[in-house]
Write a structure and sequence with these properties.
Radius of gyration: 18 Å
CATH topology of the domain at 8-15 and 39-53 and 116-306: UDP-N-acetylmuramoyl-L-alanine:D-glutamate ligase
CATH architecture of the domain at 8-15 and 39-53 and 116-306: 3-Layer(aba) Sandwich
Number of helices: 11
Helix content: 25-40%
Oligomer: single chain
Distance between the termini: 35 Å
Shape: globular
Strand order of the largest sheet: 6-4-1-10-11-12-13-14-15
Order of helices and strands: EEEHEEHEEEEHEHHEHEHHEEEHHH
CATH superfamily of the domain at 8-15 and 39-53 and 116-306: Ribokinase
Strand content: 15-25%
Length: about 300
């Protein structure tokens, strides 16, 4: 693994996974990679920023494959913890008339065993942005505590906190998810909720009301993703519905994660959340034109081409 750079643009914490994706009903499963925050830093790396990842992996073939992936994508993994007593998580994706369905084998994963004492403080302090999610905290009590501790470390060093709610009710009940996610969101500079998740978490329906909720909670920027409709970007002084581009979509497995990584990368480049949303909407749309989480994520030039630049 490479030595970590002295300063990274984005560091994410969470649970990476091996993906087995079945494009055709009844067909074979194709191997790939997933995990929301891992996907996000890969998407950001493809947009040209320096990224790193902290997690736990099993000492197994799947863990080694993820390390090789990050190396190939330019994602620093020098501080990843390898746990010989735990496994690397796996999930399955199938596709049908109602969209894609997921099945997970993640209980007891190496990532879920990460705790406060495992955190690399100096590494987290090296980031301009710390990116975490609801899944980062849902996988175990120790992981939830570790993310809160990482938030404290990052904020004390002046880093920007980015948080995607990414609600997974298979992992925890709604009341607990709401309490932990919204407590973490109080520290978020950039809130990245998806509409469906936010409606469940807030009890609100209207996108503008949801944006107001997260602004009141403390976010400086709310980027509420709306699927094919694009995203609603809101700050204390301005808000705008930013449309997406039209594509022939086949698999939306990691569209939201791609949005996150592209949005953060472009925000770092421009300090303009509305420009970042134009860029990220296109990246997310392009990522749905192929199967799997990582393989179809676009490079920066493809995104610029899609928005006419």
């Amino acid at each position: 693994m490479p030595n970590s750079p002295s300063k990274l643009d984005i560091i994410a914490i969470g649970e990476p996974m091996i993906e087995l994706n079945q494009p055709i009903i009844g067909g074979s499963y194709l191997p790939g990679f997933g995990g929301d925050t891992s996907n996000a830093v890969i998407a950001a790396a493809r947009s040209g920023v320096r990224t790193g990842y902290f997690t736990g992996l099993g000492n197994d073939a799947f863990g080694r494959a993820l390390l090789k992936l990050w190396q190939s994508e330019g994602v620093d993994a020098s501080r990843v913890k390898v746990d010989p007593s735990a496994h690397t998580a796996v999930y399955f994706v199938s596709h049908g008339v109602d969209g894609h369905e997921f099945y997970y084998m993640r209980a007891g994963s190496a990532a879920s065993r990460i705790g406060v004492d495992d955190l690399p403080h100096d590494y987290i302090r090296s980031a301009r942005i710390l990116h975490v999610s609801g899944i980062s905290q849902a996988i175990s009590n120790s992981a939830a505590d570790a993310v809160f501790a990482a938030i404290d470390i990052a904020k004390s060093s002046g880093a920007i906190l980015s948080y995607d709610s990414n609600l997974r009710l298979q992992l925890w009940p709604l009341a607990r998810a709401r309490a932990i996610i919204h407590e973490a969101m109080r520290f978020a500079d950039i809130a990245l909720p998806g509409l469906d998740d936010a409606q469940k978490l807030t009890g609100l329906v209207d996108p503008d009301a949801i944006a107001d909720f997260y602004l009141r909670l403390g976010a400086k920027i709310v980027a509420l993703t709306l699927g094919k409709s694009g995203s609603l970007i809101a700050t204390s002084s301005k808000r705008q519905l930013v449309p997406s581009i039209s594509v022939a979509a086949v698999d939306a497995t990691a569209a939201g994660d791609t949005f996150d990584g592209a949005f953060l990368a472009e925000y770092l480049a421009t300090s303009d959340p509305f420009r970042a949303a134009i860029y990220a909407n296109a990246a997310a749309a392009l990522s749905t034109t192929g199967y799997g989480a990582v393989a179809p994520m676009p490079e920066r030039q493809a995104i610029l081409n899609a928005i006419g630049e």
